[in-house]
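May I ask for a single protein's sequence together with how it folds?
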Amino acid sequence: MLKKFLNLKTILISFSLLVVIGVIIWQGVNYQGNPDPTAKDITPGAAIINTAILIFREGLEAILVLSAIISGLVRKKQDNYWKPISAGAGVSFLATIATWFIVVGIISSVNASELHIQAATGILAVIVLCIIMNWFFHKIYWQGWINLHNRKKQKITGNNGESVAKSTFWSLFLLGLTSVYREGFEVVLFLQNLRLKVGSDVILQGALIGLALTMIVGVLTFLAHRRLPYKKMLVFTGGLLVVVLAVMVGETVQEMQLAGWISTTTINVHFPDWMGVWFCIFPTVETLLAQVIAVIYVLGSYFAARYLTKRKAMKRQTQAVS
């Protein structure tokens, strides 16, 4: 137990250090180490961190699914089975990049003001992030989605010892493709709102950091054959995403107010400018209420999922005793 705790602590410390180092490097290159905290709109640094956290989070989920699918094949030394799955996962990365440019092209072709487009993409980003942060959804995802892929894998690889037929190869290829592309598609949708605010270059920097962290975990998992505490890591990155969600909700609601989509009800409280710049906390009823609801939604689904899990475990123990 102590060993697992120390391993998790090491992972969390290493991740935090990488984030801090990335921010320091970004500050040194772009602002000579002294960014302006009173600048308007979301800062490039915040956008980089948000992008990196999201991609790393989704990357962890993709690795979790792939490791569940491939682990049994590797133990049985069925190289002819896991290779097409890995090839499909690789192609899904290229498909995600292609999807990015397609979505960018669609948004660019929309004949609407920039403020309305940002508000619309902001709503889309919040919806995607709420789905990602729903712990009931992920409970179903981890169990149902992984079990579904494993059942497909067992059905396809039913003929033990025989070479992989052409149809079997493509079935396994599609298995790897769909298991990863789903995560990539979510990332593409979420990042469009940030792209409109800070540009593609800033998003690329955050994406490279997130991919680097994902590759480190992937190498440790598939090459070093290390078993990492994925769920604990997902909970940790989920905590970071709660902050990202609150920022995105506050910013999106403000854009909807500026676009005239919803009303603006100010409160007689002064917030420092940096709270609006860094955390999108504004003195309006609509923004604050939306942020509170979003955080309660995420935390509520998390603790409710934990409660049901413990309740089911206690029920099984009671049945075993009786």
